[in-house]
TrEMBL record:
Presence of the UniProt keyword Nuclease in the record: yes
Protein's recorded name: RNA-directed DNA polymerase
Highest rank taxon of the organism: Eukaryota
Pfam family, one: rve
Keyword Transferase: yes
Residue ranges of the region described as Disordered: 600-623
Classification via InterPro entries: DNA/RNA_pol_sf, Integrase_cat-core, Integrase_H2C2, Retrovirus_Pol_polyprotein, Rev_trsase/Diguanyl_cyclase, RNaseH-like_sf, RNaseH_sf, RT_RNaseH
The enzyme's E.C. designation: 2.7.7.49
Molecular functions per Gene Ontology: endonuclease activity; hydrolase activity; nucleic acid binding; RNA-directed DNA polymerase activity
Amino acid sequence: MGLVNYVGKWIPHLATVTEPLKQLLRKRTGRNTDIQDEWREDQKNAFNDLKAALMKVPNLGYYNPHDKTVVIADASPVGLGAVLVQINKNGPRIIAFGNKTLSSCERRYCQTEKEALALVWAVEHFNMFLYGKVFDLVTDHKPLEVIFGPKAKPCARIERWVLRLQSYNFKVKYSPGKTNIADPLSRLCEVAINPTALFEDHVHAVTESARPVAIPLQEITESSLGDAEIQKVREGLYNGNWDETVKAYKLFHNELCFHGDILLRGTKIVIPTKLRQRVLEAAHEGHPGIVAMKGRLRTKVWWPKCDRDAENICKACKGCMLVSAPSAPNPLKRRDLPSEPWVDIAIDLMGPLPSGDYILVVVDYYTRYKEVKTCRTITSSEIIEMLKDIFSRLGNPVSLTSDNGRQFSSEDFKSFCAERNIRLYNTIPYWPQQNGEVERQNRDILKRLKISQVEKKNWKEALRQYMVMYNSTPHTVTGKTPAELFFRRQFRDKLPMIQDMTHLSEDLEMRDRDKELKEKGKEYADRKRRATSCEFEVGDKVYVKNMTKQNKLSLNYEPETHTVEANKGGDVSLRNDETGQRIRRNVVHLKRVEGQWKVLDDENNVSDAQTNGKNDENESQLE
């Protein structure tokens, strides 16, 4: 009735509807009568009508940040209730209700702690309305006025709750219980014998289960008594009766002994099969590498194939995998020399320069002849116009290699190449080495541009001088000038020379020289980069290198897994397992996803135990 009277101005015919309930109040005055004895059909209907009326007042009030705000909270033995109220010149209006069931632990709090918890929960529940605003916090528990004051020294639990409210601007006010309209909300919670745990309880339970826990000697002793493998070792040590399944232990029988019920190998504890996974998880805490983890285990514990198990758990750790070093690249694959000039060409864009210009670089793979064009815009239409100008003088090439810039991967550019019967090849994203010839030329051009800036010369004039010098200078690989191979004649520049227009030299010597130096370069590069053949098969799961790191803590690899769809000599096509997006990457951008680690049962892997046992024996002898 208190709650209904508070909002009664919005309920039509309130006096008529509440009359059956008022009759109960009149009858109970001065008598100790149970209300259930007087509860009839009229009272039941009135109670249901009032509940329906409360639910059918969607226009009780809209939140106004300029009106005075009040939060009324209350606690019952089973739950918490809260009401958000705003007051203006027209009187109070309810904005929102809220209630919460107490957990089994919270129900054991004293009443003062429950009332304090109600205040804290109510403020955080209505955070979006209260943050950054001055408001009153109303309670029917008088001690809270002092407890939430600046000079109070409450118990540790309430003090932590008070600290949670430090970011809010409020004042705690006392109001008698008969005027507390949040009281019915706190009693609407169903009383359960075994209430379900809150979300926070589930999180804490999962955290406690996932965290590696130290293993006491008592637990090792109990597990050793129930471990069939260790009991067979005991039988072999004491009676000389060695079972076939524990041959891995027999190799070290001179080092094995029992201390009570715990098996030792020298000064190392032999971990029972049941506890090995927990030991490995504890040893990998802090994410050591394979070598460091093996060294950590060897100082204190041992079991057959423990080194292999440590290696498997390191490889299966997703966190270690995503921040590990990149995969080794594939051995270099040299491009075959084209049959003649202007068959295979490569293009790339440099810029922007300080002047706002860009430079389009075009290189012929056969002669190393180079053309450059400057432009202000780098749209596909602008690039097409410049290529049309070059192709009008030199003809259309057979193939054209470019990176994945929007200018070169647009539909307009693809249509331009298809119209002229030019095969377009786009390099692997983030792998400029696939178009290494033009990238190397860009470095030379950039060097001359920097020199022109130092000498305070016109960079365009300096670029023209460089082009004359480059095309008339013998290339280090071919041994001939690019212009001579391309135009079958020597460029005339400022240097004097003897013209010989009738003699055309054969290019057999140049071809042999090109092949020889390419092989030398390949051997040197493969040796320097420690290149190894690493082929991914279709269907393999891999992680992709993160090319857009935001900060120092960004992962080296993206956490989403990808599936290999095709692999052509290091050019790998991938599909994102979550979004389905298809991408291309080089093999050095990928890291294979290792399988989930699981401790192997040595009883079912006798041959492996024998093999690894011999390795352990050799290793111990070396030690």
